[in-house]
Write a structure and sequence with these properties.
Structural class of chain A: alpha+beta
Distance between the termini of chain B: 37 Å
Distance between the termini of chain A: 31 Å
Radius of gyration of chain A: 18 Å
Radius of gyration of chain B: 21 Å
Helix content of chain B: under 10%
Strand order of the largest sheet of chain A: 3-4-5-6-9-8-7
Order of helices and strands of chain A: EHHEHHEEEEHHEEE
Shape of chain A: globular
Number of strands of chain B: 25
Strand content of chain B: 25-35%
Strand order of the largest sheet of chain B: 21-20-17-18-23-19-22
Number of helices of chain B: 5
Number of domains of chain A: 1
Number of domains of chain B: 2
Shape of chain B: globular
Order of helices and strands of chain B: EHEEEEEEEEEHHEHEEEEEEEEEEHEEEE
Number of helices of chain A: 6
Strand content of chain A: 25-35%
Number of strands of chain A: 9
Largest interface: A-B, 52 and 66 residues
Oligomer: heterodimer
Chain lengths: 224, 446
């Protein structure tokens, strides 16, 4: 997996790290993957840098099991070196099933303020747009986006939000197209992907998650 | 088989023929009576044209015949004219939709007319004048076609020279659907009467513009392109560019553009019971408190749609439903939804279906209240949910007890869609925001 680095020119991060979360990050690092949040919080921990508005930020690399936070720091350093080179690349798409750092690409695409909420077993990136629209991306402690939700004035680009899961959604939509005319609500439920999508006037709302990616004991009701 | 001959109407003569305006007489054609083993009655009176109202029906749709997919679709007839002329076309089976904004008709239904394009002065291809085309997405599926300027006749009034959309139903027409539009509608461009279940859609929702700020700015980066500017003699969709469209060029709510009686609508539908009706007749009245036939009783409660998107986005242009102690912040009345959709794990679904299938009809109730303040203007609503399989075993087209949910939905799903069954047996007032007379934001009353 290649590492990517970008400059966050639009997004405003509000990263919250407290003792519990840092501890969680260490646990995370010992699991299969570590995420963006983990690296930044680790940085704070070592006192070297603090993420600020318009700061260079890491699109985190996928780190295999067994790599520790020191390895993450090393990768961060490598990333910074290459940052200028990679600035011209399109922002990575944040999407269901993708890694946490791609939320940054979404906040750039949407010109959205990004606010991170850290909860005991997962994190939520809130991407708030100027017109009040909100996209939320739910990230497990191993750095994978397991759910997304949206409340937007206009139809959100679901291909970008659902990523690799989008084709399953489209197939389901076609399979359910027996109903004629206007559709204001849609549900898709498969063995893995679950999607709810509603629209009325200028309010589109919905959510999607993949059962296989949900954190242990996580209730899908929490994706709102 | 329905006769599909559309006559060119001389609109002014229609106006003259109406004579008494809103005092026109009402003729009762049918009071019911079973017309077949498996067919319910015709319910309601046929309303003759008035100054500020049109007849509406729930029936088998533009193809006339019985269709499995045909359920609870409300239609009216709309007259489309070349602006400022008497060259007009009457189009039947236009779906009445309070959940969208703007008139959209199949292009083939107005092909005898020469409707002017919506010309965007400095946008679209090459920065020169271009003609507007629109991609209008629903949750699933959507519409593609050029924007035109038309006079739209509703009742005996005309909404003069408003932008509408033609739904492109000529497979050889250019430009083809752009890729971004195909993506926006999940690859399902609805471009035939059978796919639409109608010859077009009359969007008369609570606001005036079909798009608003996103299209004003022409910045579609968070969504899909809605308006395109295409060269006048466009051959390829790739020549169409995302366009910034001034508000007076965006597709406009035809009711809001009427010279009078333009601050909302009153939908009057008769009571329908049991397994339904083969046909329902009702009336769509334009204006609220603007005439003797659209007076809101002084005692009526107005349930306000949320407008405070900055602080309460989930209720934007929605109201609140309280059902079985649970709050549904994303609730709305919508003639364009064909059933009541809400999550209730206590009501069984039909086999392999998301429709409700209780063994006997359930009498239920909920409370509707303001969108921004759920404690304000609370009104009780009684409703029934019946067995959808039983309803669909008939050849009816109007189903008063039709409801559904999706077993997969999380219990936190906050939406309660009050589709067409809500409107049966009610006189429902729906105001339009920012119209004179609809002074305090959009609201419902019934």
């Amino acid at each position: 997996m290649t590492q990517k680095v970008g400059m966050d020119t639009h997004a405003k991060d509000h990263l919250l790290c407290n003792g519990r979360d840092q501890q969680q990050d260490k646990q995370t690092a010992n699991r299969t993957r570590i995420g963006f949040k983990s690296i930044l919080c680790s940085l704070q921990e070592v006192g070297s840098k603090r993420p600020t508005d318009h700061a260079q930020a890491v699109r985190h690399p996928l780190v295999n099991s067994g790599w520790g936070t020191s390895r993450a720091h090393f990768l961060l350093g490598v990333s910074v070196v290459f940052s200028a080179l990679l600035l011209a690349m399109d922002p990575a798409r944040a999407a269901l099933g993708e890694v946490e750092s791609t939320t940054q690409g979404d906040s750039m695409r949407m010109a959205a303020r990004r606010h991170l909420e850290i909860r005991p077993a997962y994190s939520v990136y809130n991407l708030a747009m100027r017109d009040g629209s909100l996209v939320r991306e739910f990230v497990s402690s191993d750095g994978i986006i397991f759910g997304v939700s949206w409340r937007t004035q206009y139809k959100p680009n679901l291909e970008k939000l659902l990523g690799a899961s989008y084709s399953g959604y489209v197939k389901s939509a076609r399979d359910n197209s027996g109903q004629v005319g206007i559709r204001r609500n849609f549900r898709h439920s498969s063995s893995d992907l679950v999607v709810k999508s509603d629209a009325h006037l200028h309010l589109f709302s919905g959510w999607a998650y993949r059962r296989s990616l949900l954190p242990p004991d996580f209730s899908p009701d929490q994706i709102e | 088989m329905r006769m599909k001959l559309f006559q060119l109407l001389i609109w002014i003569s229609v106006l003259a023929g109406c004579g008494g305006g809103e005092n026109s007489t009402v003729t009762t054609i049918s009071g019911g009576g079973l017309q077949g083993q498996n067919e319910g009655p015709v319910v309601g009176q046929v309303v003759l044209p008035k100054l500020n109202s049109v007849a509406v029906t729930v029936d088998g749709g533009p193809d006339g015949g019985f269709s499995l997919a045909q359920a609870n679709i409300l239609y009216t007839t709309v007259v489309v004219c070349e602006p400022g002329t008497e060259r007009c076309q009457s189009i039947d089976h236009i779906q009445v939709d309070t959940g969208s904004v703007g008139l959209r008709v199949l292009a083939s239904k107005v092909k005898q007319l020469n409707l002017p394009s919506v010309v965007l002065a400095n946008d679209g291809a090459n920065g020169t004048a271009s003609v507007a085309h629109e991609c209008y997405p629903f949750v699933i599926g959507g519409l593609w076609g050029p924007n035109k300027v038309a006079d739209v006749g509703l009742g005996a009034q005309i909404a003069s020279a408003i932008p509408i959309q033609l739904i492109q139903d000529d497979v050889n027409a250019l430009p083809k659907v752009p890729q971004d539009c195909s993506d926006a509608v999940n690859g399902e461009v609805l471009s035939t009467a059978s796919a639409l279940g109608s010859n077009g859609i009359l969007g008369i929702g609570s606001v005036k513009l079909d798009c608003g700020q996103m299209c004003l700015a022409g910045d579609y980066s968070n969504s899909y392109v809605q308006y395109y500017g295409c060269p006048a003699s466009v051959t390829s969709a790739s020549d169409c560019r995302p366009a910034a469209v001034p508000s007076n060029f965006q597709v406009f709510n035809p009711v809001a553009a009427l010279p009078q009686h333009n601050n909302g609508v009153v939908l009057v539908l008769p009571q329908v019971t049991g397994l339904g009706a083969s046909k329902v007749n009702g009336e769509l009245i334009f204006g609220i408190n603007s005439s003797t036939n659209n007076q809101l009783p002084a005692s009526a409660t107005r349930i306000h749609l949320g407008v405070d998107w900055q602080h309460n986005f989930p209720s934007y242009l929605n109201v609140t439903t309280t059902y079985k102690g649970k709050l549904f912040t994303n609730s709305y009345l919508d003639t364009g939804t064909n059933a009541l959709f809400f999550p209730d794990m206590d009501i069984g679904n039909c086999v392999n279906s998301s429709w409700f299938c209780p063994s006997s009809a359930l009498h239920l109730s909920a409370i509707l209240s303001d969108g921004d303040n759920p404690q304000a203007n609370r009104v009780n609503v009684d409703f029934d949910i019946g067995n959808a399989d039983a309803s669909f075993s008939t050849s009816n087209t109007a189903f008063p007890y039709l409801g559904g949910t999706y077993v997969a939905s999380a219990s936190s799903a906050p939406s309660f869609s009050w589709g067409l069954p809500f409107f049966y047996g009610r006189r429902t007032y729906l105001s339009i925001w920012q119209q004179v007379g609809a002074e305090d934001g959009p609201w419902y009353s019934f």
